[in-house]
Amino acid sequence: MRLKRFARYGTVGIINTLIHFAVFTVLSSRQYPAAAANLIAFAAASAFGFAANARWTFGTKASFKRYACFVLLMGFAASASGLASDFPPSA
Question: Which of 10, 26, 35, 45 is the most exposed place for a label (fewest CB within 10 A)?
Fold first, then answer.
């Protein structure tokens, strides 16, 4: 059971990456700024990933409340890592 769940989670992750890459590539080719293209691609991929993992991997219902918590947590993690890279520790 765990191996099957892990394989499904990995499959969703690969599809997520492909969605992000495809959306980013299309938007970039249409002259969208990189930051905007990346944000839209991230939103599309994360929405798919959340819904697919909820249903297919974990067999639960994907609710808006859970999705909002997921997006807030991911946004916090992305912001924190970006902020940390803007201010690296001095040597």
Answer: 35
